[in-house]
Amino acid sequence: MPAPSPSPLLRRSPVSGLARRTMAFPEVLAQSVAAVAPSAVMVTVPAVVHPVAGAWSALVFALVAVLMTGVGAAVNVFAGRMVGVSGLYGFTVRGLGPGPGVVAGAAMAIGYGGAACVGVLGAGQFGLAALDDGARLLGSPPGPLGDPGPGLSAVAAVLAAVGVVVLLVRGVRASARAVLVTETVAITVVLVVLVVVAASDLSISAGLTTALAPGQWGVALLLATMAFVGFESSTTLASESRQPMVTVPRAVRWTPLVAASLYVVASLLFGADLAAGGTSDRLAWSLAGGDGAPALELLLNLGITASWVACALGSVTALARIVFTMAREGLLPPVLGRVSAASGTPSAAIVLVGAHLAVVPAVLLLVGFSVPALFVLVMTMSAFGYLLGYVLVCLAAPALLGRLEERTQLGAVVPRVVAGVLVVIVLWGAATGGAWAVGGFVAYGLVVGAALALWRRRARRRGLALGLYDEPTRADVLRPDAPGAHRSPGTRP
Amino acid sequence: MNAPAGPPAGDGGIIGGRQPRAVQSALRVLEAVAVEGDGVTAKQIAQRLGMAPATVYRLVNILVAEEYLVRLPGLQGFALGVRMGVFVDAAGAGEPTVLVKAARDVLAGLRLRVRVGIHLVTYRGDLVRFRDVDQDFPPPVGEAQLNQVLDSCALGELRAGGAAYVHRREDVAPGCASLAVAVTDETGHVHAAVWLVGAPGGVDVAVAAVEDLLPLVQGLDPLLR
C-alpha cells in the first residue's frame, strides 16, 4: 500500500504547458460520448447481440447501463477529489498503489489504443462504403469500393489515422468541438434512418450479424458491456476542463445514460426488421427493398464514418494523456511529455500514438486479417482492457475512501459488487467465446507484464513516484504559508 | 482564479425543502476549516460539528468543486481556497492597514531616498492589494482599477515571476512611469511588491539605484508573513 505523503504545495503545476482549465462542459461531455461512439455502436452491437438476446436486447442494454453507472460512481470517487490527467491509471495508483496502477495504465492503454484502431478501421470501411453509395447514385457500375480488398482498406485506415492526428495536434478544444458536431449529426442520422426503415418496407442487411450463434449469452453480455466503454475518458481531460470537479463527474454520470437510451431505441427499432433482412459478414450495412435505399444508405454511412472518426479522436486524446503522464513521471522517455507551446496539447505523445495507429491496422490488414475478423479481435482486446481498468478502479475507490477516512457503507459495498459482476461477465464471455479468447489473454498478459517490468526496472533505478496529478499549487490556497498547509494529513499539531 | 460558477442548474430561485439546512451545514463546514486550520480532514470536521460523516463528505466535495476549499496534496487534508480571499479582503476593506513598525520603517526609509510614490502591495490569488499607500504621492489608480489592468502592467508582469524588478516607462496612466520590485519567499514565490510610481524622471532615479533598493525591499519578506 502506498502511503501518499503530503508534499509541500508546488509553485507550478506538474502538468504545466497543457491548456489548463479551458474546456467547457459540452466539450468535456463530447470527449466521453465520442470515445463511446454511440452512433457507430448503435449500428453494430445491437445487431450482434440481437440473434442471442432477441426481444430481451433492450433490457440487456438497460441493465448494463445500471452496471456502468456503478463503475461511473467509483470513477467519480476520484474525479471529485483530484484533477487527473491520466484517468483510471492515476486513480488506481492513488487507490491501490503503483503496481496495480501500472496494470490499470497498461489495460487502459490497450483499451483506448484498440478503440482508436477500431475507429480508423471503421472510418475507413464506412467511408469507402459511402463513396461506393455515392458512385452508385451517380450511375457508376459496381467498383472495388463496394467490396474493398486489403490494400484499399489499409489505405483508407491510414488516411483516417492521419486526419485524426492532424486534428488533435491543432488543439484539444478544436477537436472536441469537431467531435461534438460530428457525433450529434451522426446520432441524428442513425436515428432518422432507423425510424424510416422501421416505418417503411426497407430492410437492413446488417454487418456482423453472423458473428454470434444463438445461446452465446456470455459473449452477448460482454458485447453489450463493450458498447459503453469509453464513457470514463473525460477523466483524462480534467486538467484541461473548467471547474473539473464539477464538469468531469457530470460527464461520467451522463454518458452511460445517453448511450443506453440510444441503444434501447436502436434495439427496439430494428429488432423486427433485422429478422426480415439478410445477414452479412461485411462491416457496413446494406439497405434494400425501396426506392430511397441508396440515398439513405449514403447518409447512414456518412454519419457512421463521422462517428468512427470521433471515436478515434476521443480514444487517441485519452491515450495520449496516459502516455504524457507516464513520461512526466519518468516511466516513459521524457520527450513524450512535451507539450506544443501553440496549442497546449501533448503533441509528442499524440504523434507517437498516431504513428502506431497509421501503421498497425494497415500492416495487419496487409498480412491477411480480414476486416471483420480484425475488427472483432481488436474490439474484444480493447474491451478487456477497459473492463480490467474498471475492475481495478472499482477496487481502488473503497481503498482510497478508507485511507482518507471518508468511507460510507454504500461506498464500501457497491463498487466491490460492481467489480465482481464485471469479473463474472468477462470470464463468462471468455469461456463461451472460444479460441480467440485464449489468444487474447496471452497477448494481454504480455503487454501488461511488459508494463510492470518496465515500471519495476525504472522505479528501482531512480525511485520513481507515480500518481502524478494536477495538484493544487500555492496559488490555489488562501494562505499558502500557513503551517497546516504542509502538515501530515490526519495528524493534529 | 476561475470565473465564478453560475447558480446550480435547475434552481428555480426558491429555497425549499431541506436546502436551508444544507446551506447552514456548508457554512459551518467552511467555518470549521477556518477554525481548525489547514490540513483538517473530513472526518475531523464531522466530529467537530457533530454532523453525519456522509453529509460532511458530500459538502466538502461540493465546496472543493466550487473552489471554496482545496483538497491538499495527499487528498486527506483541506484548506481554505483562494476563492475565500474575497471575504477576507472585504472584511479588511476601509480599515487602517496593520503593518508592523519594522516594515513601516523600511518604507519610510525608501520614501526618504526616492521622491516618487512608494506603495506596498501584496498578491492574493489573481488580485493585488494595497497594504501601505504613500500619503504624499497617492497612487494614480485605485485598487479595483489596478486589478482590472493587472495583467498588462508592471505589477502583473512581476507576479508572473522570473524577474526581481520590472520597469515600465509608461504604466497604468499617461505620463506615469513605474518600477515594481519583488518581495519573494524562500521558494522564490513573489508574494508582495514595492511599487514606485510617478514622473518618468523620478522613477529613473530609482531605476539607477535599483541594486541598492533590492536588499531593502527583500528585507520586508519576514515582516509581511
What would your notes on this structure say?
The complex is a heterodimer of chains A (about 500) and B (about 220). Chain A is built from 15 helices and two strands. Chain A has helices at about 25-35, 40, 45-55, 55-80, 90-95, 100-135, 150-170, 170-200, 215-225, 245-275, 295-330, 345-365, 370-405, 410-435, 435-460, and strands at about 205, 285-290. Chain A is globular. Residues about 1-5 and about 485-493 of chain A have low confidence and may be disordered. Chain A has a two-stranded antiparallel sheet with strand order 1-2. In chain A, helix 4 runs antiparallel to helix 10, helix 4 (about 55-80) crosses helix 13 (about 370-405) and helix 6 (about 100-135) crosses helix 12 (about 345-365). By secondary structure, chain B is an alpha+beta fold. Chain B is about 40% helix and about 20% strand. Chain B has helices at about 20-35, 40-50, 55-65, 85-90, 100-115, 145-150, 155-160, 200-210, 210-220, and strands spanning about 40, 70, 75-80, 115-125, 125-130, 165-170, 175-185, 190-200. Chain B has a five-stranded antiparallel β-sheet. Chain B has a three-stranded antiparallel β-sheet with strand order 1-3-2. In chain B, strand 6 and strand 7 form a beta hairpin. In chain B, helix 1 (about 20-35) packs across helix 2 (about 40-50) and helix 1 (about 20-35) packs across helix 3 (about 55-65). Classes of the chains: A mainly alpha (about 500), B alpha+beta (about 220). The interface of A and B includes residues 5 and 484 of A.
Keywords:
heterodimer; A: 493 residues; mainly alpha; Amino acid/polyamine transporter I; 15 helices; 68% helix; globular; disordered C terminus; B: 225 residues; alpha+beta; Arc Repressor Mutant, subunit A; Beta-Lactamase; 2 domains; three-stranded antiparallel beta sheet; disordered N terminus
Fold topology:
The complex is a heterodimer of chains A (493) and B (225).
Chain A: H1 25-36, H2 38-42, H3 45-53, H4 57-79, H5 88-96, H6 98-137, H7 150-169, H8 172-199, E1 203-205, H9 217-226, H10 244-276, E2 286-288, H11 293-329, H12 347-366, H13 371-404, H14 409-433, H15 435-462
Antiparallel strand pairs in A: 1-2
Chain B: H1 19-36, E1 40-41, H2 42-49, H3 53-65, E2 69-71, E3 77-80, H4 85-92, H5 101-113, E4 117-124, E5 127-132, H6 143-148, H7 154-159, E6 165-168, E7 177-184, E8 190-198, H8 200-208, H9 210-218
Antiparallel strand pairs in B: 1-3, 2-3, 4-5, 4-8, 6-7, 7-8
Helix pairs in contact in B: 1-2, 1-3, 2-3
InterPro entries (chain A): AA-permease/SLC12A_dom, APC_superfamily
Protein name (chain A): APC family permease
Transmembrane segments (chain A): 55-80, 101-131, 151-169, 178-199, 211-231, 252-278, 298-324, 345-367, 373-401, 413-430, 436-455
